[in-house]
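Re: export button greyed out
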Amino acid sequence: MPAYARPARLEDALQVLKRGNTTILAGGTDYYPAHADKPLREDILDISAIRGLRGISDGRDHWRIGATTTWTDLIEAKLPPLFDALRLAAREVGGVQIQNRGTVAGNLCNASPAADGIPPLLALDAQVEIASDAGSRLIALEQFVVGNRRTVLGSGELATAVIVPKPKCNARSHFLKLGTRKYLVISIVMVAATIEHAGGKVRAARIAVGACSPVARRLKKLEAALVGEQLDAALGAKALASHLQPLSPIDDVRASRGYRTEAALALVRRTLDQLGAIT
Amino acid sequence: MSAPAVQFDPSSARFGSSRTQKRLEDDRLLAGNGLYSDDRNLPNQAWMVVVRSPYAHARTASVNADAARTATGVLAVWTSGDLSADGVGHIPIPPLFKRADGSPMAAPLRTLLADGTALYVGHPVAAIVAQTQVQAQDAAELLEIDYEELPCVIDPRKAILPGAPQVSAQAAGNISAEQRYGDAAAVTAAFAQAAHVTRLELHNQRLIATALEPRCALAQFEAGRWTLYTQTQQPTGTRDALAAVFNTPPQQFRVVVGDIGGGFGMKTGLYPEDALACYAARKLGRPVKWRADRSEEFLATHMGRDQHFKAELALDPKGRILALRMEGLANFGSVPVGSSAIIPLVLGPKVQTTVYHVPVIDYRVRGALTHTMATGAYRGAGRPEGNYLMERLIEKAAHEMKIDSVELRRRNLIQPGQFPYRTHLGETYDAGEFERMLDGALAAADWNGFAARREEAKRRGKLRGRGLAVYIEWTGALPTETVDIRVDADGTVTVFSGTQAMGQGLETSYVQLITEVLQIPAGKVKIVQGDTDQANGTGSVGSRSAFVGGSAIVAAGRETIARGTELAAQALESAATDIEYLNGRFRIAGTDRSIGLAELAARQAGRQIRVTATETPSSPSWPNGAQVCELEIDPETGEIELVNVTSFDDIGRIINHMIVEGQIHGGIAQGVGQALYEQAIYDAESGQLLTGSLMDYCVPRADQFPQMATHFDESVPCRTNLLGVKGCGEIGTIGAVPAVVHAVLDALSPYGVAHIEMPITAEKVWRIVAG
Amino acid sequence: MNAVVEARRNVRVTLRVNGEQTEVLFAPYKTLLEVLREEMNLTGTKHGCELGECGACAVLLDGVPVLSCLVLAIECEGRSIETVEGLARGSELHPLQAAFADLGGTQCGYCTPGILMTAKALLDKEPDPGRERIREAISGNLCRCTGYLQIYESIEEGARRMREEAK
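Workaround output, generated via the alternate export path:
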């Protein structure tokens, strides 16, 4: 029979982790489906009771989303328009029951190519805070997820928060997703974009596409091309097929490579149009 | 030509229809007090798990069960050899069909466990029973099966080609059965005269019923007799099939069914797991329970549809149909179930010419074996396929001939003066007002106001489309049902019916009928179904329950009054002809001398009155109607948004409006699912089911659903049963499939597309728009 | 539960279900769904997929809907659990249940408990939600029988009755 630990203190959790071969569980919404019809075999570290890990705090130059903050917590939090993309993504993670349990950080650690949270957080330039017995470190989300369901987390390490830096100018973000259905579906394409702007012009842009590569990718050439552009409802026209070069969509039962590519471009353009149109 | 006997009785048709009745099932279902099969447990029960083939086609070269047998808590591990050594047989299928050469339908025997060769992914290979479910699951992982993988074939069009992997040595060329209808020579002659021929090939893709309740079986063997608690639409059929498997009289089995969490045709017949649980209960001398997990439900409950058609429609210069020539190829799967063959070979053909006058037809249909799960009954069972093909043909013909598609339909509809109407395939329609349904649907959907809505959508960058379908349904399979009624001394009237409720509110409809016949309050009535020791019959399939079962209930109610009248005459020392019945009392007409039903029962031997009535409607019924769908397409992504579906149906007399509306809505939902979202996909090479979860098999969710408006015309009662009802369980599905597809094609009309295969995903739409 | 609690054997936990405290003994890997059904005989909550994909097992945990197949029961110690069995007031149906009965919101009844609990949580929080909010709220609950329309209408009517009651 596996061991089950549900500590209330982070230090205790890190001690449990040190012994290795332990699965970290927060909301459990990805864990159980992966273990369908099989009795649990590994030891489990349930982090849902750890004090101080849940909730969003506003720091001087960043926001901190604690590791056990649920999608519902995020939806209901008072956050600026910068978070619109993440909030929109949150509303489409599973159904409400999943949103009530699933955590933002858990979505990153599970690292599915179709994880809803990753593109908006990439577009927020988010970092992941990692704790271990040896101390704590920060790593950019882009470096945190290294492949299909793989992260840099070593044994003995626990993701404790997602850090979102505050942008230098006004910023807003948007998110669009294409799937067979809206809820409880594996997405075909997801696009998230953040635009920082001043004086009616784009000062910085971050655009990420999910479900079109093993790990969601930023479109950095497009981001660079947008800087200095006029903010209007035709902003999307700046996005070109060549900007999608970082993507490597697959053919599968849900969609073909060609459709994913075209749909990604259409969604990128639409996302930018909608961001440009807001005045 | 002889018309079927008219049995419709206007005085019966009032039963149940005169008031609204809330569902009697709801007090328990809404409070969480329903009793579904998985809600039952028995003391000392053991758990069974079924080990399934991970391959589509493989010889089980050897099985090493040593580790599994000695694992903690394990009570037994069985493979096919153990069962045959104990004389356990196979699940029979009806011997109704033949191959082209006249030999009987050929298919592998449906043994409870694969007999040396696994023939589809999910084929049961071994059964393990342990003290607990977890122990049985653990032991399953210790079972060592050495599979020798063999080549497989998934697509029936490939299965019938020379050199394809063979499913069964008996079925050469993988053809299991074949049927021909019509008059090929007459059709050839008609085509020679045709001004226009419309040709179409299409696929009714494979679907999975996805009842929300997974199957579950709990078997007990006591005093030489089995009790099986399960979920089936056909308790008596399940009992009889068990008797065949175990080669015992049916009376050795009692099949008990409580609430069912959705059937849709998928819970018909006996499943191997039910029989395995019975085997285990006898072998181990203790109750044994099995419950499918969702993945097993996807892999190993029979699926629906999967029929390919090639058709040609010959028309005269005015667009009047001269002849239909068509060829069907149905995918039976590898191990056909009882309903696999009858759907494409019989039920589809029954409605193939639908509401149109088609003078001659040439119809050939074959059933092929492939290394996939069997197909069988699923909502509509053959009629959606037939109607979809006919509606697609007529719509395509209208476009090709540049005739308005509504007008082309009108020119071909069977007219009221033509009833009783005999189709070229030999079916007789008793009555119908097809054009009135068409007009009703067009008016209700504001068909003529569409142009403005399309313009408005265009301003928003959307492509709006409208689609029409006119259709016919056939109901009343196996048109005999027997009902027993028992009146007890306390006045309780118990009605025993062999039909089976599965969520369609049958208990309520039946109570409405019997309370009105007997003029007693609903609280005095008990409906007993789902216990083969108490009631037997065909069960609930093919929208027959109200039509056949309901008629039998009214007949039994009348028999109760007739028998009661005789008994009352004796009790009141009067002539039976002087006795009148009112509100539960028998009275000598014109006097105050009377006796109540309860009191009369109390005076009889055994303190009860028992009557039996058998009712056999003289022919099937033909519900029909028209549906209109409107939707919008986002041309950049291909995404489709349903706006609304409007139905206008003649389902005969209605017993309970709320229930009937729910049936139509649910039917439409499953039709929309087929048109736009759902498809069971097997990998062509490996035979793995690629859509084996609710994430990949897209059952419509709440956010995908449009407004639905249902309308009914009750003025054309069915003339071949007492009640004038026609059946409503499947008609919504039949209409929605073509209506939705036509709406998509209409929205895409600027792009000149002639046909799109279902499900019409965003990607398929996008491909057309993107050119 | 504080500090580190490890359990390699069955645990004895006090659960508060529908307002009643009960001590239950179960293996630590058991989900809330399994404990409700198997250990407490509360079978109103349904097994649908055990993968978090169908919503049939939805219950309220501290007032919010969760999928009981994805929650370990051990985690629920000291928290409020509400199931469909707790909805009616004695023999009188909750207004939401009554609306379902009046408007055909249930057919086979298998998805109904999960939908009722999810809808109740919505209406407790938002007494007058529009159709879009209702759609969104129950999108995690599959129904194969109704086509959802009568469910929407039932929830809207239930909301109206609950508002009446609150006046």
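The CA atoms of residues 130 and 159 of chain A lie 4 Å apart. The button fix ships in the next patch.
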